[in-house]
């Protein structure tokens, strides 16, 4: 099995996170997939932004949920990273899905509803994935575990994964109980035993967020199904070197 390299919020080390330039750069660097975060605007448009508030990654202030898409589209989501990205916009989920029609990258969509409960977020995201024929190329994850179990109710055959950063002895049986496809864990939780137990229970393991050659190499060596990284080019280079060493 070859470990899937997901560009975490795009190639976010070098381009403004969760923007089309970051996704473009990840594609250019050869990432297998894109990881992104989705929240809802005041008028229920799914937009790609990590924080519930606008302050860190845009020139706006306040909560995403309190603005319409047209209002958010006036903001600059790029110049905080570099003047090169001035006037970069907050993309919609539609923007990403339309862009990916020809590229067919794998997608990991994280529902950002563990702090703010966006009513109908699961339905809206699932409908978009089906509309763009991306259901079979996407995994949905969330720290809100009640939310991801609702994906199963949509009966769209979209894979979903339990996302956690906490150590939990019941992690694997609980994941099986909620019918998750896999577990997405913080790097510090990664161990050979956990990967083996997950595999024995028909669960995959993905690890976030690994940005150094050592952590990336360990994730690959232990047989993680996927990893999330801000530096997909580095991860791909490490993966190629490990493959070359085995030949």
Name the descriptors.
single chain, 247 residues, alpha/beta, TIM Barrel
Q: What do you see in this structure?
A:
The protein is of the alpha/beta class. The chain has a single domain (4-52, 93-246), classed as TIM Barrel (Alpha-Beta Barrel). It has helices spanning 20-28, 69-72, 93-103, 121-131, 145-153, 171-177, 192-200, 213-221, 232-246; strands at 4-8, 33-40, 46-48, 106-111, 138-142, 159-164, 182-186, 204-208, 226-229. Strands 1-2-4-5-6-7-8-9 form an eight-stranded parallel beta barrel, surrounded by seven helices. β6, α6 (171-177) and β7 form a beta-alpha-beta unit. α8 crosses α9. The radius of gyration is 18 Å and the shape is globular. The model has no long low-confidence stretch (mean pLDDT 96).
Structural classification: alpha/beta
- CATH-derived architecture: Alpha-Beta Barrel
Question: What is the arithmetic mean of pLDDT?
Answer: 96
Overall outline? globular
List SSEs in N-to-C order. EHEEHHEHEHEHEHEHEH
Let me know the number of strands: 9
Q: How large, in whole angstroms, is the Cα Rg?
A: 18 Å
Domain count: 1
Determine the strand fraction and express it as a percent band.
Answer: 15-25%
